[in-house]
């Protein structure tokens, strides 16, 4: 059983952060809130998402009781697995859900799950939707998070980062993110043009000094930047020829989003 009420703007921002990487995925509903981990179809980027129950105005959750003896073996096995995890797993088309939320104005969103019918009832003011959920078993398995140690961390204002990405898109297809001593830089080079942003430590919120740089696909970083449009600050975790982990908070600090992006290895 799952029933909840949440501010529409908060929920939209959360779903937008997911659609930056994936169109669909599996939410894990637990006593503590919502969780998700998914990779894009190309296996280049991953998103990890958590939303605490405190972000909701109402949050009611309970795992379904064991089925009767008349239930099929498959149903019993599925229920037993769900109970052992103390969670409910639902599959969702995030793009469709975001489109529905976009019609709701500024109303509070009421959510109620019908596990048996695999439907999510969604009410926003006078509008009521019945959303068909996806079969979780038809979706990709939740990926494991690799163990990574990042030597450098940069905290930057989101708008500065997003503006640089928009400018870089007009120049090339890839971007270098790096730190040289106490300067963080973003650099893109095309056939004819070149763009570079350099920020000293006192121009950033936080910087771990070091000497690292990695090359990434601008397409993916551009998509990620669209998923953080309402965020004040983001944290970049960097290394040399290393994945990028980009962290930020949503729902006034009651939710967390992490993007992990594989690097492109430069030819010597």
TrEMBL record:
<keyword id="KW-0238">DNA-binding</keyword>
<comment type="subunit">
    <text>Homotrimer. The subunits circularize to form a toroid; DNA passes through its center. Replication factor C (RFC) is required to load the toroid on the DNA.</text>
</comment>
<feature type="domain" description="Proliferating cell nuclear antigen PCNA C-terminal">
    <location>
        <begin position="144"/>
        <end position="263"/>
    </location>
</feature>
<dbReference type="GO" id="GO:0030337">
    <property type="term" value="F:DNA polymerase processivity factor activity"/>
</dbReference>
<comment type="similarity">
    <text>Belongs to the PCNA family.</text>
</comment>
<dbReference type="Pfam" id="PF00705">
    <property type="entry name" value="PCNA_N"/>
</dbReference>
<dbReference type="InterPro" id="IPR022648">
    <property type="entry name" value="Pr_cel_nuc_antig_N"/>
</dbReference>
<keyword id="KW-0235">DNA replication</keyword>
<dbReference type="GO" id="GO:0006272">
    <property type="term" value="P:leading strand elongation"/>
</dbReference>
<dbReference type="GO" id="GO:0003677">
    <property type="term" value="F:DNA binding"/>
</dbReference>
<protein>
    <recommendedName>
        <fullName>DNA polymerase sliding clamp</fullName>
    </recommendedName>
</protein>
<comment type="function">
    <text>Sliding clamp subunit that acts as a moving platform for DNA processing. Responsible for tethering the catalytic subunit of DNA polymerase and other proteins to DNA during high-speed replication.</text>
</comment>
<dbReference type="InterPro" id="IPR022659">
    <property type="entry name" value="Pr_cel_nuc_antig_CS"/>
</dbReference>
<dbReference type="InterPro" id="IPR000730">
    <property type="entry name" value="Pr_cel_nuc_antig"/>
</dbReference>
<dbReference type="InterPro" id="IPR022649">
    <property type="entry name" value="Pr_cel_nuc_antig_C"/>
</dbReference>
<comment type="function">
    <text>Sliding clamp subunit. Responsible for tethering the catalytic subunit of DNA polymerase to DNA during high-speed replication.</text>
</comment>
<dbReference type="InterPro" id="IPR046938">
    <property type="entry name" value="DNA_clamp_sf"/>
</dbReference>
<dbReference type="Pfam" id="PF02747">
    <property type="entry name" value="PCNA_C"/>
</dbReference>
<dbReference type="GO" id="GO:0006275">
    <property type="term" value="P:regulation of DNA replication"/>
</dbReference>
<feature type="domain" description="Proliferating cell nuclear antigen PCNA N-terminal">
    <location>
        <begin position="1"/>
        <end position="59"/>
    </location>
</feature>
């Amino acid at each position: 059983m799952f029933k909840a009420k949440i501010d529409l703007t908060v929920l939209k921002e959360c779903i937008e952060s997911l659609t930056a990487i994936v169109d669909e995925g599996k939410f894990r509903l637990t006593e503590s809130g919502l969780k998700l981990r998914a990779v894009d179809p190309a296996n280049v980027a991953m998103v990890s998402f958590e939303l605490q129950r405190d972000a909701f105005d109402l949050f009611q959750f309970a795992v379904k009781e064991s089925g009767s003896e008349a239930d099929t073996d498959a149903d019993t096995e599925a229920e037993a697995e769900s109970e052992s995890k103390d969670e409910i797993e639902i599959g969702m088309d995030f793009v469709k859900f975001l489109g529905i939320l976009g019609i709701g104005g500024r109303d509070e969103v009421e959510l109620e799950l019908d596990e048996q019918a695999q439907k999510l009832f969604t009410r926003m003011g006078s509008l009521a939707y019945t959303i068909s959920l996806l079969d979780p078993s038809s979706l990709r398995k939740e990926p494991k998070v690799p163990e990574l140690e990042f030597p450098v961390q940069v905290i930057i204002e989101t708008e500065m980062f997003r503006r640089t990405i928009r400018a870089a898109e007009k120049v090339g297809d890839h971007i270098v993110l790096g730190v040289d001593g106490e300067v963080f830089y973003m650099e893109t080079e095309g056939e004819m043009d070149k763009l570079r942003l350099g920020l000293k430590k006192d121009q950033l919120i936080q910087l771990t000094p070091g000497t690292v740089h990695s090359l990434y696909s601008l397409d993916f970083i551009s998509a990620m930047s669209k998923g953080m449009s309402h965020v004040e600050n983001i944290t970049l975790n960097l290394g040399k020829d290393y994945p990028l982990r980009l962290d930020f908070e949503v729902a006034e600090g009651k939710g967390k989003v992490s993007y992990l992006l594989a690097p492109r290895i430069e030819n010597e």
